Structures are given as C-alpha cells and as structure tokens.
From TrEMBL:
Name of the top EC class for this enzyme: transferase
Species whose genome carries this gene: Pterocles gutturalis (yellow-throated sandgrouse)
The Palmitoyltransferase DHHC domain, residue ranges: 81-198
Protein name: Palmitoyltransferase
Family: Belongs to the DHHC palmitoyltransferase family.
Length: 318
C-alpha cells in the first residue's frame, strides 16, 4: 500500500541519515589531529639554553616568568608556578595539558580516548560530542525498530534469535553512551574539561572550577560556534584559537549574595564573532603582575581582609 511504502521510505531515509552522520562524526573525531600550542609559547633559543643550565627551580621559574610576561596565560600550577612542559619545551597555555599517549601538548585537552585512539581536545571536541549524540540516536533507532521482534520472542511467537541479540546490544550501548553524553553535556554547560573537573584550574586568587564559565549560552557557543545551522554538522565551528579564552572578574559574597564584575574590552576574532583571540586587551599577564597591583578596590578589599569567602571567575562580556 501507499502508506506502507511511505513508511519504508521514511525508515530508509532516517536509517541512512543517522548512519552517515554517525560515521562522519566518528571519522572526524579519529582523524582530526590534536591542536598544539603556537610557537609564541615556545622558549627562545637563549632562554631554553639558560633554562637547561639552571639547576635551581627558583631560577628556572624566573626565566619562565620573564618569557611569559607578554603571553595571555592566567592559570598556574597549584604552587603558583608557571606551567611548563619539559617534554615539549614550551609554556603551557591555559587549559593545555601534555598527553602521554600522544606525547604532545594538547590545547584544551579533555581526555585521551582509547575508543577513537586520539586525544579529545579543542580541535575535535565538537566532533566527539556529535559522535556521542549520533551514536545515541543510532542505537535508539535500532532498538526501537526491533522492539516488536523482541516482544514476539517472549510471547512464544516466531522471532529470530539474532534480532533479539541485536536489541540487547543496541539497548546496552544506548544506556552506556547516554551516561557519557549526559556527562559531557554537563561539562559543556559549565565550560569545563574532564581534567578540570578533577583538578580545578588555579588562577591568581586560587583554584576555581568555574574559572572559564561564561554562562550556559556562551559556553555552548564556545564549542559549537555562533551559527546554529552548523551545530549538528561535524565541521569545525568552535570559537577562538584554543590558546586563549575570554575572561571576566566576578566577585561573589556568599553571605550577601551580591555579584560585581569588572568589564574588559575585547578583541574580535572575526567579522561576525565577539569571541576574542586573546581574553583581555592588556598584553601584561595578571598572574605575573606584582602583588601590589590589585584587581579589586573599595569595599571588596575589606571583605578579603575579613576572610570572606570569594571566588574569582574569569570571563568576558560580549
């Protein structure tokens, strides 16, 4: 009949479309090379030679501080030291980590995924999320289409065992991928990586797990881009360069529940983007500024002296 023919056509279209998007996203996740820091984060030849000659950590840190004074970095190690990779011999940008499996520093590294045999980071995080989403939809589609045969098997009606097995496999993968996809959706909403969830980035005023959060909407656009028509396609549309991230100073008083923010002028990274190449217009690194230079003033200083709990969140007003 016409209705059954139309149903078959819809079935085939949905099946092939979901399969194509699944394979496309999986392919992009696997074969997109992890992005590494640019050359500006590498030490000069003179600084590198001097760094290698020095044996005292204090002297080495002084060399790194001098080399990093004009770099857009706002995070340090837990001991307030410059984040430096001895293996790659470069100063790590914010959210950059060294992957022991790939043996390179990866921008905005989330984790090394053995299922795709690749690092998931700035260059392919969107592809990884789409891969999870289309895998989820594909498993759901398969499970839904064989559900009737699964029911027939348990009602003593004729049904092939391999179809029953297919349902169990699709259902198990659906449950597993759903938990992973939900977790990464939560990470996107909070603008965190998996590494930052377990080890909060350290800013000038201390560790802050929400240090790069701009609000759910902006966090989403940071990964998927400004144009929503490209969100569901596995093409690179993430904002920024992976080395720098927009920042804003937010001071929170948990007793009064008041929030004040300091706005900073932004540089546009494109004609239609408000996402900056560098997080602040100032080239001087706030982390490397002297302790006498404070970013707060007025009543907020009294709160610090009185020991009030405060959180520093770095973002940028668009």
């Amino acid at each position: 009949t016409i209705s059954s023919t139309a149903e078959k056509v819809v079935y085939l279209v949905v099946f092939h479309l979901s399969f194509v998007m699944f394979v496309w996203s999986y392919w992009k996740t696997i074969f997109t090379s992890p992005a590494s820091p640019s050359k500006e984060f590498c030490l000069s030849k003179a600084d590198k030679e001097q760094y290698e000659k020095e044996e005292r950590p204090e002297s080495q840190q002084e060399i790194l501080r001098r080399a990093a004074k004009d770099l857009p970095i706002y995070t340090t190690t837990a001991s307030k030291a410059i984040r430096y990779c001895d293996r790659c011999q470069l100063i790590k940008p914010d959210r950059c980590h060294h992957c022991s499996a790939c043996d390179i520093c990866v921008l905005k590294m989330d984790h090394h995924c053995p299922w795709v045999n690749n690092c998931v980071g700035f260059s392919n995080y969107k592809f990884f999320l789409l891969f999870l989403m289309y895998s989820l939809l594909y498993c759901l589609f398969v499970a839904a289409t064989v559900l009737q045969y699964f029911i027939k098997f348990w009602t003593n009606e004729y049904a092939k065992f391999h179809v029953l097995f297919l349902f169990f496999v699709a259902a198990m993968f659906f449950i597993s991928i759903l938990s992973l996809f939900s977790y990464h959706c939560w990470l996107v909403g909070k603008n965190r990586s998996t590494i930052e969830t377990f080890r909060a980035p350290t800013f000038r005023n201390g560790p802050d797990k929400n240090g790069f959060s701009l609000g759910c909407s902006k966090n989403l656009r940071e990964v998927f881009g400004d144009e929503k028509k490209y969100w569901l396609l596995p093409i690179f549309t993430s904002l920024g360069d992976g080395c720098t991230f927009p920042t804003r100073l937010v001071i929170m008083d948990p007793e009064q529940l008041t929030v004040s923010s300091q706005n900073e002028p932004a540089k546009s990274s494109g004609a239609n983007q408000s996402f900056p190449t560098r997080p602040l217009s100032e080239s001087q690194n706030r982390l490397l500024a002297s302790d006498s230079q404070s970013v707060e003033s007025g009543p907020e200083e009294e709160n610090v002296k009185s020991g009030a709990k405060r959180h520093i969140i770095v973002s940028l007003e668009s």
